[in-house]
Every structure is written in C-alpha cells, then in structure tokens.
Amino acid sequence: MELEAIFITLKLAFISTMILLLLGTPLAWWLAMTRSRVRSLAASIVALPLVLPPIVLGFYLLLCLGPQGPIGGLTDALGLGSLAFSFSGLVLGSVIYSLPFVVGPIQSAFEAMGNRPLWAAATLGAPPLSQFFRVAIPMAKPGILTASVLGFAHTVGEFGVVLMIGGNIPGKTRVVSLAIYEQVESGDYGEAHVMAAGLLLFSILVLWMLNHVRAKMRVIL
Description:
80% of the residues lie in helices and 0% in strands. It is built from eleven helices and no strands. The chain starts with a helix and ends with a helix. The relative contact order is 0.15.
C-alpha cells in the first residue's frame, strides 16, 4: 500500500479545498449578485476546466510555472525556486482545476437565496459585509457543504493536471492517481486494484455522506 502517496493526496486535497473555499466563496457571491458586463467572461473562465482536457490545462500551467514561465520566473527570481514539480505547484494547479466544482454550488445557493433576505437585513441597518457573513453565508450552508465535498473529492481523483505539473516524484508529488498509473504500467495489477478499489469506495462514501447531510440540512432549514 502506497501510504506516502495517500498522505500526500489527502494533504493536497485538504489544503486545496481550504484555499478554494476562501477564494471561491466571495467569487461565487460576486457572480451571483453582480450585473457587470464582464460577468459572462468571468463565469466562462471559472468554468473552463469543466470542458478543457486536464492534460491541456496541465501543459499550460507547466509552461507558466516552469523556470522560463512568467510565474516560475518570478518565484525563481525571488529565491523561491520554480513551482513546477513541487507540492506548491500541485496546490496551485489543483485550485485552478477544481475551482468550478466549488464556485458552482455556492453560486447556485446564493442565487436561490434571492435578494429579499439582504433587503430585510439592510432595512435593519446591517452593512453589506454584515449581510454577507450573517445572512448570506448561513443561508448558503448546503451549497458550501456541497462545494467542500466536491472540491475535496475532485482533488483526490485528479490525474492529468498533477501528472503534468508534479511529475510523479516519490515523497513529494506522487499522489494516489499517479501511483495507480505507475503500478498498471509496471504490471502490478494487484496493488493497482487495491488502490483503485479504495478510491471507488471513497467516492461512493463521499457521495452518500453528501446526500445524507444535505437531506438533514433541508429538514433543519
């Protein structure tokens, strides 16, 4: 059993999900509430990983994060080294690739909420920031929960992006999906089957828990 790969995978999924929630929640709020002309463009960019092949996204991220790329060159000049083939690069790639899976459910929750609760809070003297944290966020809890689970599970199952950016370095960027791929290539189908079955059971468990908790939250709300 590739315990080290499992640990790196869970660590990557946890960190990426936390970053996605911090960035995705205000972005989803803006997409749900704004009437800006650039909203459609911004929404299209956020949703791009849904239709773009992961290997293509990983390739362009590799070019950007490499020593000759704009981001990699900047981090290298600052003495931070290149983000390509590093855990930090995996986190950045995972955040970009899983962004629509987090923004989508939260945006839908904000849109379903409507403006009436915010208008009511405004009439009681609540400033916009208070409306967001004390009204919008609590009412969007089911969407935020869904986004958290989907973002985490999607990161656990990533392959194309992490392969291009991480390079499958043991103890550093080798995640479960890459370990399975290498085991299949080497003919170790028994170990590959164990890890693949583990991911399958994990996915089923995640979806069951998500549906169960969402059903409970609907009853409470």
